[in-house]
Design brief:
2 copies of one chain form a homodimer.
Chain A lengths: L2 H7 L1 H9 L14 H16 L3 H11 L9 H16 L3 E10 L2 E11 L3 E2 L24 E2 L4 E9 L5 H9 L8 E5 L7 H8 L4 E5 L2 H4 L21 E2 L37 E4 L1 H9 L26 E9 L2 E11 L4 E11 L7 H23 L6 E8 L2 H4 L1 H9 L1 H7 E6 L6 E7 L4 H8 L11 H14 L5 H12 L14 H6 L4 E8 L14 H7 L5 H19 L8 H33 L2 H5 L21 H27 L5 H12 L22 E3 L7 E3 L1 H8 L3 H31 L5
Parallel strand pairs in A: 4-8, 5-6, 6-7, 7-9, 12-13, 12-14, 14-16
Antiparallel strand pairs in A: 1-11, 2-3, 2-10, 5-10, 11-13, 15-16, 17-18
Helix pairs in contact in A: 2-3, 3-10, 3-19, 4-10, 10-19, 14-19, 15-16, 20-22, 20-24, 22-25, 23-25, 24-25
């Protein structure tokens, strides 16, 4: 059969697939002419037919068979296996190797030395029924990457989750962590902030433990009966100061090639200054039980069978860590399938491959979906199909310690990527449940169209319809937040909003450093259960039972992302819609207005209560109580530049969207120089949101709309220059970034207006 | 010294006391002429000087030395001791004895019979340092009074707190309790509702346990290190269906005198139909650990170190209870001090005396404050002072099993009380902390004036200022409810609102059956800690450390209630202010409007989600899920009668308050027949809120404004006829009770208008 015949052979299957759609297609696919749209749907049916859950299961079992963190033989073996597979499937694939600072523990000790003695196990034993849990020859003991070496002995203080509000609470009780070792439970914000904030408050060491309330028996049955964290399970993880910059700490902003110019370790700002160690709740329980002093407030209590106290002491602990600080190699696999019409427009796709130990959930469950896509696309190519734009598939190494593989690659190829990339789609852990779409809002409509066309494996409706149902039901629950209600209303009225991206996976260098359009897509929410995160029990046997039994959501993810990749690659005009961007930034702008108002009224309220001595009168006089400090009054700021820029963006976006609707047909007849200009404008739209000097105090982060919060780590801060300045009461900086952000929006609008001019000059539809 | 000299001798002390007041007195006391107001303040100083914390401690130690529940020798001994003391202090005191049904356990067995075997201890062992904990010769084993006898063996189901929403959650999971035994944790609503609702859902037995999250190690250190409930501590308590009627189950509506006509036990509607037993978390843990099935939702999880499951089974338990159902005597002590001017206007004061075992906290901590008042008032009388109105002090027996002493006495003396009582002030457990004022809102201003004049023992400001500070600080906390914010605003703007009374102590027969003005006053909030509620460890040694060390809040309560009693007894005109009643009922009316609107929008939302199949799509298909049933649309109702009645009440109250301000001076010259009519109108104002046929399905409860909720038990439902009909979607009944309630308000306004007419006819101020 030739190409056309092959496509026709799948038309029946495509029609069948359409019947199951909850979202009836009301017109051609975004960016396509009607004819090409129909052809694309047929192509997708062919694509779907290549996806086989048995493939995913086989790849997962093989790749998660041995420890595969940076530096292990199996990490390299998995790179070579992936490379070989990509080549087998017809891709132009290569290894790209970088040399990164990746410290590994040589010796680790944790002891309770007073009032009684206890030596922490710091060991995750083998569990019956989990075949790899005994296979630990190449595994490292549980540790946090990029903490400092040290040997400290000091009183212990419990700091809850170790976030800024927790230190405020400690201050209210007159408790200092200075010269002490803190013990924080996981949760509430990114792990790396816990030792950083502890250090900034004077602590000399930091323990982080997994409370059973958060992912142990408090949540569900523990492994192996259920999937939750057993008493000896430990959450490893990076504590590099990634909100400053991710990637190799020694090569910020440049690729960590063999000959790169490197910082000295002591000059690397993302390496912490105090030792930090993750521990199990089995090891934490004797330490917490040995604390005394005031009983903690209700929100600080975990699920251990004891009364939680702040300390300090009488518990005293010794924490000693020494590490190997040598450079290690990381292996990215990069695979190309060249575009037939626009080879220099790249549609990128990535998922990392390195785990903390076996990494079956994190990251291999997403990696196997990506492999399924690559295999199916390879099959299409073998049948004669070619993408119009170039597809680039990336298997990243070293994500866990600090997004190393993606960041070093993005930094090394920055100029080419900024010139060529039209979209980067990321995934990571993937499990049974609901689609979680997030990223650049110009692609929101594409995501909706795609998600409306993929069938949920369990319910038969589209994954979009299922997500919409959950948003509606969540918003109807008692205690639903105003945000939940607004999201549900938007979803009910039209397209389901996609979320904004903070950090925590390999999209960050693309979105926030290079300012390229980015999406992150995966399924989750019905995993049974994810309580083995970053532990030795994140294994094939565990995922096979609790992650995605049958691998149907692996296939669904390959369908969602595969469609998004293929439509972006094949569209006549890039499948962008700008009104979602304008509306979303309009919402963010309303939020920062409200934030300032809320700060003002909270400040007034607090200062009034201080004047009335109300805090002291309301406190128990038998307990130490230190009232909060008085804050200066909150000024009014000039939001006008931002408000005006949003108004303009809304109008410009609306005009361009209207013109783009008919563009796919008309552009075939456009003059080629104009077509080139138009394509170039559409390719790099997101760049308009970039601000070259970066965000305050962290120039690596260039995006003015989306950033990980300096004090949230993974959690996003939208309009970050404005929002973080307000939150931190830096009023002048807030006004400065109102201007910077307005400038970025106006640059975006300028670009939209030029696009509109070009489209208006296009010949009318025949 | 004569009376005047004695008063003068205390003038200095009174002035000193005034200096410490946070609330400067801006005019005469409510209801007093300026001269009499000044004299009253001097009297209060004399009164204060009689209060001695050592008295309180001594009485507590003696009265809590032996088990003192109904039927014990020490219960009778405490009655006789109280009687003797009242007499010694110059009161005309007597014992009033009733014969009540009070079942006591003869044998109790609880066993886990599958999948493993375990026999519950059902025993609270002696604790070192708690001297009475070994003194259990007369103690009963832990039990729930008025559960049924029975011997049942069945599968166990965990029902969280066993409240209506919990059964809805079970329905969503397809779980029935029919033919099973439920295990509920304490909390969320009144204990007696747990077995009642379990029975109504088909259960054959009910266990109620104290989860350590709620009053054990989850809240603070357990006894004896701290004050919280130890593993073997059990919360006893009544499970009679008191929202139907409290008091002796065999004599509803009449006094349980020796010759009273009694129901047969099987006809008494307040006795439960299934066996029910309270157990410790030590005994509960093996039962809960033996449950399997679906993991419960987050809100259902306690603090035991296990994963909570719904069941049913595989845990199977046997519960066997048999009881002695004979009548037992209860001993009320009633003490009179006759009024000099209005002997037939009674100001009543009560606190119960019986505990579940030793009862140091509950009730003796309140009882000793009441004794201190009686002693101090007696001393005033011995100095020659006489109250203008009659004071009646009541030491109730049998409160714990069902408000027996107060209810039987109130029923026996109903006609006289309705004719004579001007106010009943109740207290119960009293501890270190903040004043909790609640009751009839016509006395809100009196409570504010009194609380503004009593110094908080710890901070030196008035107990009113301290309460106001806490309301402000609570309302400023993140997540504060709209109710909290409204309360704080009202408190900041003027008088601190007093709460509405539900049930749970001896005020209920006075307020809700006889429709008499009632207050409940006590301190709490800083007790360290109350986790021994209704257990053997509610002891003198425990209270002395954790309840109110130094007994300063016992003295403060005697000051607050003593002032309220003396001012009400001595006022020239009863110290009433009606605008607070009008404003409060106005708020309640707004609430029921909003309730109907909220029901309508929730119904619309639910039905829409059902139409879209959203609940099913949002649920995990691997778990049983039963969507909620569709509800019929919520109609609009005619609130006009109620709204108009509130408007009228507001105007009438405002007029009367203005006239009452000058009344104390003018009334001295009023014609005596008019004065008699006025006094009679003021005495029985609250009666206007009565509705003789009572509330739907529970005629014993007559008050149209305040009632314990049928489905909350202790928790109040304001405008209960309307609110509960709305909540239960009985629309016709809601409209009927809108009319009934409006009628009560109009009767109240009629009375106010007649008062205004009388006051306008009074001679002008000279």
């Amino acid at each position: 059969m030739n190409h056309a015949q092959r496509l026709l052979a799948f038309a029946g299957a495509a029609a069948l697939c359409l019947v199951a759609r909850a979202e009836p297609s009301t017109g051609p696919l975004l960016g396509f002419t009607p004819d090409n749209s129909a052809a694309q749907l047929k192509l997708e049916a062919t694509y779907d037919a290549q996806l086989n859950p048995a493939d995913l299961r086989g790849w997962l079992e093989q790749m998660a068979a041995e420890p595969n963190h940076v530096g292990t033989p199996h990490d390299k073996a998995n790179a070579e296996f992936t490379l070989a597979k990509f080549k087998e499937w017809g891709w132009d694939a290569r290894l790209e190797v970088f040399q990164v600072l990746y410290p590994t523990p040589k010796s680790v000790t944790l002891e309770l030395v007073a009032p009684t003695r206890f030596t922490a196990k710091l060991h995750e034993p083998a569990i019956a029924g989990d075949r790899t849990s005994a296979n630990t020859k190449d595994a490292l003991p549980p540790y946090n990457a990029y903490g400092a070496d040290g040997d400290v002995t000091a009183e212990l203080v419990y700091v809850n989750q170790g976030m800024p509000d927790d230190y405020k609470e400690l201050e209210r009780h007159g408790i200092s962590v200075k010269g002490r070792i803190v013990i924080a439970r996981y949760g509430g914000g990114w792990r790396g902030l816990k030792p950083k904030l502890a250090y900034e408050h004077g602590a000399v060491g930091c323990l982080i433990y997994s409370d059973p309330k958060d992912d142990g028996y408090g949540l569900g049955d523990v492994y192996p009966k259920g999937g939750q964290r057993p008493a000896d399970g430990v959450q490893r993880g990076s504590v590099a100061d990634m909100p400053l910059y991710p990637g190799d700490p020694l090569t910020p902003g440049i690729g960590a090639t063999a000959d790169a110019k490197r910082l000295k370790i002591e000059d690397a700002k993302t390496i912490l200054k105090i030792p930090v160690l993750p521990i199990s709740y089995g090891d934490a329980q004797p330490l917490l039980a040995a604390l005394d002093g005031t009983v903690v407030p209700p929100g600080w209590r975990g699920a251990l069978p004891l009364t939680y106290h702040f300390g300090p002491g009488p518990a005293k602990v010794r924490l000693a860590i020494s590490s190997d600080w040598s450079l290690k190699p990381i292996y990215n696999v990069i695979a190309f399938l060249s575009g037939s019409e626009h080879p220099d427009e790249w549609v990128l796709r990535g998922n990392h491959r390195d785990g903390w130990v076996f990494g079956a959930w994190d990251p291999l469950s997403g990696h196997i979906a990506m492999m399924a896509e690559a295999k199916a696309i390879g099959a299409l190519a073998k049948q004669g199909w070619k993408p119009k734009r170039t597809l680039v598939y990336c298997s990243w190494d070293g994500e866990e310690p600090g997004l190393l593989g993606s960041t070093e690659w993005a930094e090394a190829h920055a100029e080419e990527l900024q010139r060529k990339a039209v979209l980067y789609i990321n995934s990571d852990t993937n499990t049974r449940g609901f689609l979680n779409p997030s990223g650049s809002h110009a692609f929101q409509e594409l995501v909706n169209q795609v998600a409306g066309s993929v069938r949920d494996p369990q319910t038969g409706v589209s994954v979009l319809a299922r997500l919409r149902a959950r948003l509606q039901v969540d918003a109807a629950k008692p205690g639903a937040s105003e945000d939940d209600k607004e999201l549900a209303q938007l979803a009910a009225a039209g397209s389901v909003p996609i979320a904004a991206l903070g950090s925590g996976s390999d999209f960050t260098p693309f979105l926030q450093h290079l300012t390229l359009a980015t999406l992150n897509l995966d399924f989750s929410g019905e995993e049974q259960q994810d309580g083995v995160y970053h532990s030795i029990y994140d294994s094939f046997d565990h995922y096979d039972r609790f992650g995605d039994p049958g691998y149907h959501y692996g296939v669904a993810l390959a369908q969602v992302i595969g469609r998004a990749m293929l439509r972006t690659a094949d569209a006549d005009v890039l499948p962008l819609q700008f009104k979602d961007t304008a509306a979303t930034i309009g919402r963010y702008t309303t939020e920062v207005h409200k934030l300032l108002d809320a700060l003002r009224s909270a400040t007034e309220q607090k200062n009034k209560l201080l004047e009335q001595n109300a805090y002291v009168l309301a406190a128990d006089p038998t307990q130490t109580y230190v009232p909060p400090a008085r804050d200066s009054a909150v000024p009014f700021l000039n939001f006008a530049p931002l408000d005006n820029a949003v108004t303009r963006l809304t109008q410009s976006a609306s005009s361009v969207d209207a013109l783009l609707a008919s563009a796919p047909v008309e552009l075939a007849h456009m003059e080629s120089s104009q077509r080139l200009e138009l394509d170039s404008l559409l390719q790099g739209m997101e760049a308009a949101f970039g601000h070259a000097p970066g965000l305050p105090g962290r120039e690596w982060f260039k995006h003015t709309i989306y950033a990980p919060g300096l004090l949230t780590g993974y959690g996003v801060k939208t309009l970050p220059g404005v929002r973080e300045a307000l939150e931190d009461r830096r009023w002048a900086e807030a006004e400065q970034y109102i201007g910077v952000t307005a400038g970025a929006l106006n640059t975006y609008s300028d670009r939209l207006d030029r696009i509109a001019t070009l489209l208006r000059q296009a010949p009318p539809k025949k």
